[in-house]
């Protein structure tokens, strides 16, 4: 009986699980397996496995620089014993000799403005999408938290897919790592910002989103204020569960009036006042006390001065600084078999720049900071609301075992 060979790797993995769980938040089991991955193991959880905080920091310094410690980029100063412990704790990565095992990224379309769609092929054959958005001074990555989405927003192509499954933290962080490598390859400005505004509803996959966000801060050394998690707010309870996220929060409001909101987000089960009050409670307990609010503007539906005033009245009781970001509707082509969405698509139009400016001016006059998001990547189907892929769409008709729409309380 060889204890050194048979037992030690098992003990290492058990210690690793205990370390990841140490902060007090339960670790949700991956939807594609229960192996712990290095990408989803922040330095504080890795240190006990490598028997050294400095070793863990050296490994994560390598990863944060876009290098692969399981390839040719293993830090030499890590030492032979620590490298052996790393391979034993993460056998899947060690066997394939790569960090992002089960997450194979490929560059898709590149828009004229440099916005890049990255196609993320997962080990079960599904595919998620992420978007790299470079500006003059920095690069932002828009990551997905699920394949598909249960929220069924009428203006969003991801909503047409339904929810296929949630991503685990390793798969979310694999998008970030792939984006860093692509930004370096193309000599883009540094990747400093992450927005959870890709495919999926983060509140429906909160455990994995929380672990991914924590690792972005601890491991990738991104600033808390440079990471934003956006939610439609499925329920007051789901909103209050976001309080502990080490990120900025964003609320996809889209309409202040309940009847209009239900047209745009058909799975809405609570009044906007109920959802607003839940955010108010969360913000009152958070130190940053700020909220980003997103509104997808659709011509003739939610883009009038009346709608702007209603939005101002809804948001006024929120504590702290509320910033409103207007997103003029980005058209997409729904599946012909999706008749309701095809009919909505036929009716939806992008409001004119003048209409958007009037909406913005009303909010300015009501005391709100209000910006208009420039449409990036529309010519490569990478803009907000356009993320969906045919490989996963073909499986979207299967019944989902994931989170159903929030029930009324």
From TrEMBL:
Localization: Cytoplasm
Pfam families given in the database record: Radical_SAM (PF04055)
Single GO term (MF): RNA methyltransferase activity
Any one Gene Ontology cellular component term annotated for this protein: cytoplasm
Region named Disordered: 389-409
Domain of life of the source: Eukaryota
Subcellular location, principal: cytoplasm
Signal peptide boundaries: 1-26
Cofactor(s) this protein requires: [4Fe-4S] cluster
Every Radical SAM core domain range: 135-360
GO BP annotation list: rRNA base methylation; tRNA methylation
Assigned keywords, A-Z: 4Fe-4S, Cytoplasm, Iron, Iron-sulfur, Metal-binding, Methyltransferase, S-adenosyl-L-methionine, Signal, Transferase
PANTHER family, per the entry: 23S RRNA METHYLTRANSFERASE, RADICAL SAM CORE DOMAIN-CONTAINING PROTEIN
Protein name: Radical SAM core domain-containing protein
Source organism of this protein record: Rhizochromulina marina
């Amino acid at each position: 009986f060889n204890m050194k060979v048979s037992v030690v790797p098992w003990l290492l993995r058990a210690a690793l699980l205990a370390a990841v769980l140490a902060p007090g938040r339960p670790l949700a089991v991956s939807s594609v397996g229960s192996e712990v991955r290095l990408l989803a193991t922040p330095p504080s959880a890795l240190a006990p496995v490598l028997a050294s905080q400095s070793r863990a920091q050296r490994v994560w310094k390598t990863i944060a620089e876009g290098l692969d410690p399981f390839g040719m980029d293993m830090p030499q100063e890590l030492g032979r014993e620590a490298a052996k412990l790393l391979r034993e704790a993460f056998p899947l990565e060690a066997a394939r000799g790569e960090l992002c095992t089960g997450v194979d990224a490929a560059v898709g379309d590149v828009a004229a403005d440099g916005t890049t769609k990255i196609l993320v092929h997962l080990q079960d054959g599904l595919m998620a999408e992420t978007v790299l958005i470079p500006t003059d001074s920095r690069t932002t990555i828009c990551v997905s938290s699920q394949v598909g989405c249960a929220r069924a927003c009428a203006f969003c192509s991801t909503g047409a897919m339904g929810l296929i499954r949630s991503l685990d933290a390793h798969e979310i962080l694999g998008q970030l790592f792939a984006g860093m490598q692509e930004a370096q390859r193309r000599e883009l400005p540094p990747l400093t910002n992450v927005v959870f505004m890709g495919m999926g509803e983060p509140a429906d996959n909160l455990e994995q989103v929380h672990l991914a966000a924590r690792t972005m801060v601890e491991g990738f050394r991104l600033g808390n204020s440079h990471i934003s998690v956006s939610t439609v707010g499925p329920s007051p309870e789901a909103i209050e569960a976001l309080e502990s996220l080490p990120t900025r929060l964003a609320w996809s409001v889209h309409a202040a009036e309940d009847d209009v909101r239900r047209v745009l987000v058909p799975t809405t089960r609570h009044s906007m006042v109920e959802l607003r009050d839940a955010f108010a409670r969360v913000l009152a307990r958070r130190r940053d006390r700020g909220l980003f609010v997103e509104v997808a503007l659709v011509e003739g539906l939610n883009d009038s001065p009346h709608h702007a005033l209603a939005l101002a009245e809804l948001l006024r009781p929120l504590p702290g600084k509320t910033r409103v970001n207007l997103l003029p509707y980005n058209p997409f082509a729904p599946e012909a078999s999706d008749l309701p969405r095809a009919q909505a698509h036929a009716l939806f139009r992008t409001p004119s720049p003048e209409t958007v400016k009037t909406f913005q001016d009303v909010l300015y006059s009501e005391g709100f900071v209000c910006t208009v998001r420039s449409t990036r990547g529309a010519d490569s189907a990478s803009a907000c609301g356009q993320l969906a892929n045919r490989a996963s769409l073909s499986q979207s008709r299967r019944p989902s075992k994931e989170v159903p729409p929030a029930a009324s309380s």
